[in-house]
Design brief:
With 291 residues, this protein is of the alpha/beta class. It has eleven helices and nine strands. The strands form two sheets. Strands 5-4-3-6-7-9-8 form a seven-stranded mixed sheet, sandwiched between helices.
Length: 291
């Protein structure tokens, strides 16, 4: 790293050098990412740059920061470097077979949570099915917020399910989290108060045009929604009603241009659109249906 010699490098000096190094066109906020990397590997809090700018950083930590900066400049997302991502107050491990959960997906949790809390209070129990769970982000966020919830979480990747199960254990939720290897509903029995999913929804031909940090580091299977990006929604709409309790709901994340197409697809299958929710950027992000 183009910084002062390690034995005399202070936090302020290393931070300035890291910001300069990350100041390239494809990194939106080099100052933020430099701070995140340094705080992570140096084990420092967010106020350290202000409260202790003269703190000397040891050579071994400087070397780890240097390696992390090299990986970031090569296109690896910062949370992949860390090996985890925070989501809805939970710290979730990542693996090569899991999509990195992003803040937009918290919109889905917010959308379905009031309904599930009411079911939990009313019935004393609540059954949730999460299709394509990945890290377990949606399933575990809901379980953490609804103490009466029992969550069945599916994925076609055994590695993803292992990661999700580890995240459930870390969050103290393993007793209410059941990982099941399943292609959509293929291994699912029973009915649920809510079926939730952040399915792959990128049209196949558009994947090669995605940002490198998505295209090269998120698993293709978690991105590819088929020729028009709608194949997963067809699969969900086809069989969800069989597994839905009376009065139950389905909540799915969508691409920001897919509201009309997804709405028509579910309507044709007999579902009623209850509401569409927007993410923090104002884009259509989640649709909730009943049957």
């Amino acid at each position: 790293m183009p910084a002062p010699k390690a034995e005399t490098a202070t936090l302020a000096e290393i931070l300035a050098a890291a910001r300069r190094r990350l100041s390239v066109t494809d990194i939106d906020d080099p100052a933020l990412e430099a701070r995140m990397i340094i705080e992570h590997f140096a084990g420092l809090g967010r106020s350290a740059a202000i409260s202790a700018p003269g703190q000397v950083i040891s050579p071994d930590i400087v070397a780890r920061i240097d390696d992390a900066l090299s990986r970031r400049l090569a296109g690896e997302p910062v949370h992949r470097i860390f090996g985890y991502r925070d989501f809805y107050g939970l710290r979730l491990k990542l693996s090569p077979q899991t999509l990195e959960p992003r803040p937009d997906t918290e919109t889905l949790v917010d959308a379905i949570l009031p309904f599930l809390r009411e079911i939990g209070r009313r019935d004393g129990h609540c059954r949730i099915l999460d299709l394509g769970t990945g890290t377990g982000a949606i399933a575990l966020a809901l379980a953490s917020q609804v103490p009466q919830a029992m969550v069945t979480a599916t994925d076609i990747s055994q590695e993803a399910l292992a990661t999700a199960a580890a995240n459930a254990a870390d969050a103290g939720l393993a007793d209410r989290f059941m990982p099941v290897r399943s292609h959509w509903f293929s291994a699912i029995d029973g009915k649920f108060h809510a079926i939730v999913s952040n399915p792959p929804y990128i049209p196949s031909e558009e994947i090669d045009g995605l940002q490198a940090e998505v295209r090269l580091h998120d698993p293709r299977g978690a991105l590819d929604g088929g020729a028009d990006g709608l194949d997963p929604y067809r699969a969900i709409a086809k069989d969800a009603a069989v597994h839905l309790e009376d009065g139950g709901r389905i909540a799915v994340e969508i691409g920001h241009t897919q509201r009309d197409e997804v709405g028509q697809l579910f309507a044709k299958a007999g579902y009623q659109l209850l509401e569409t929710y927007r993410d923090l950027a104002g884009s259509d992000r989640v649709m909730v249906f009943s049957f």
